[in-house]
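Severity: low
Component: inverse-folding endpoint
Summary: output formatting inconsistent between runs
Steps to reproduce: submit the following structure tokens with default settings.
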């Protein structure tokens, strides 16, 4: 009678380890494929939104060639035509932010909280979310400082491009931020670029994110002096009391709860 040779204990261990590694490889592959598919879906969704914002429309009396929606609305209270369709889809839309030559080209949401940190334009769960305005900011009308948050995504989307401003040369190539409200197209000149973090309430330090409005010129000038003192380099930009400020924020990994911040001032006509 022939006896089957029992596997050696070391050989059994190899089989177990091989099984574990195989399962880990399969699980990792599934996660990577799922993430890739999600990234592609979200990218396509933002392309769709940008296409809607850039649609053409034919107005009465116009030539057969379509007229771009990217015209200024007639009258201060008229909504910019390029955003009407998007606003009808989601009334939380408050505007659009874009920096030419970068990946930043997104709608901006306002819900009074951080809902859009984890939801897309259609209010579905999303890991990248949509750039959103700090819930403490005023939007109707906008206050002295509008703070917009966007994720720092590994795939380069959302506000990831902001960290490139650590390089002064990059700033010189992209010194202007375009931020449209639903009613007005605007250009903002970058005046400060710096790293910060979310501090404890009791920390006696300058907290840029607590400046939402200025009761007087002294408060405004003090804030501008503080952010320019923090700036990684001199942008040459300036702001005067009464100017509208725009602050873009994303995560930074230089410190716990780190943030990378850009402050810009509306360009005067």
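Observed output (run 2 of 3):
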């Amino acid at each position: 009678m022939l006896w089957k040779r029992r596997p050696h204990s070391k050989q059994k261990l190899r089989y177990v380890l091989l099984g574990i590694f195989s399962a880990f490889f399969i699980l990792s592959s599934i996660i990577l494929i799922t993430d890739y598919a999600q990234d592609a879906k979200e990218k396509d969704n933002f392309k769709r939104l940008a296409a809607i914002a850039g649609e053409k429309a034919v107005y009465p009396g116009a030539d057969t060639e379509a007229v771009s929606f990217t015209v200024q609305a007639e009258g201060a209270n008229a909504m910019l035509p390029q955003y009407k369709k998007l606003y009808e889809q989601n009334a939380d839309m408050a505007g659009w932010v874009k920096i030419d030559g970068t990946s930043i080209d997104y709608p901006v949401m306002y819900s009074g909280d951080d809902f859009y940190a984890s939801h897309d334009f259609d209010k579905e769960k999303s890991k990248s979310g949509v750039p959103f305005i700090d819930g403490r900011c005023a939007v109707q009308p906008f206050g002295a400082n509008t703070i917009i948050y966007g994720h720092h995504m590994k795939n380069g989307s959302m506000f990831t491009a902001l960290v490139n401003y650590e390089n002064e040369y990059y700033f010189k190539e992209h010194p202007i931020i375009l931020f449209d409200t639903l009613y007005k197209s605007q250009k903002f000149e970058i005046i400060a670029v710096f790293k910060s973090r979310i501090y404890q309430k009791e920390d006696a330090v300058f907290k840029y994110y607590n400046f939402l409005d200025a009761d007087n010129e002294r408060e405004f000038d003090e804030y501008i002096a503080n952010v320019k003192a923090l700036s990684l380099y001199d942008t040459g930009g300036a702001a005067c009391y009464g100017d509208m400020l725009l602050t873009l924020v994303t995560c930074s990994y230089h410190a716990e709860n780190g943030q990378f911040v850009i402050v810009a001032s509306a360009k005067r006509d």
